[in-house]
Amino acid sequence: MQSFLEFFVKPLVPLGTQGISLWALTQITVAVLVLFFVSSRIRRWLLAGILSRTSLDTGLRHTIGVISQYTVVFVGLLLILQTAGIDLTALSVVAGGLGIGIGFGLQNIANNLISGLIVLLERPVKIGDRIEVAGTEGQVMAIRARSTTVLTNDNIAIIVPNSRFITEEVVNWSYNDAKVRFRIPVTVGFSTDVRLVEQLLLQVARANSDVLADPAPVVRLLEFGDNGLKFELRAWSASLIQRKGKLISDLNFAILEKFTSRGIEIPFPQRDLHLRTGWPEGKP
After folding, report:
1. Are 149 and 158 in contact (CB under 8 A)?
2. At what angle do helices 194-207 and 244-261 cross, to 10 degrees?
3. Where are the domains of the chain?
4. Per the count of CB atoms within 10 A, which of 48, 98, 119, 242 is most buried?
5. What are the pLDDT digits (tens) for 206-255?
6. Which CATH architecture does the domain made up of 180-261 adopt?
7. In degrees rounded to 5, what are phi and psi of residue 133?
């Protein structure tokens, strides 16, 4: 038993003033686990307690909570290593090897970690934003150190690496505020009363509870197309940013019902075919 205890406290790695023994390694492991648990609790306490009583938006509160958690972890790790008698300058060789590893095999992970920090600080996207990035469209549910979780309208969670938000074009539907303008194209025949079309389109927009009265919806006659007159209904909404397909569908249904009741036809592509009389000589 005594020999086991001696082996347990005997330094195995000559690092720092006393070296690293199994007992010290066990203490460090337990301390690190407790540190991560406490830092997570601190973040939740900040979000649910102090920050929830402020006027800050959800995204900024989340950013402050995450950065606070990372700060606690960083400072805690330094204190744990110092308490264990490990001289941080002795880790320079390890840090050099880690740097080489990052340069070769871990550069993608390091890229995502740094990008995650930039996203948290600059906040190009926030919790609750409606975004489009790298072919993915949905609502931002969580921003972590390495990746961001985006929930689509199909209730599918997509994990997007944070580097995508730095290197690729990101469409943020709710960056400034919740109001977004939707454009609904409509084509009618050339003989249609254009003022009647304008009136009906505005009636449809004003009758929809998800369309804002301010800014008011407008109708534009865009061009004289090949098959008819091309109009565009432009309506603002703040309630259906996360379900833009529903608003467009509701407006299209209402437009079709209005036009049908007033005898307005939506044209389809047509081509006139002219046949020359007679056939070329030698052909039937």
Report:
1. yes
2. 130
3. 8-105, 124-172, 180-261
4. 119
5. 999 999 999 999 999 999 988 889 999 999 998 888 888 899 999 999 99
6. 2-Layer Sandwich (3.30)
7. -150, 130
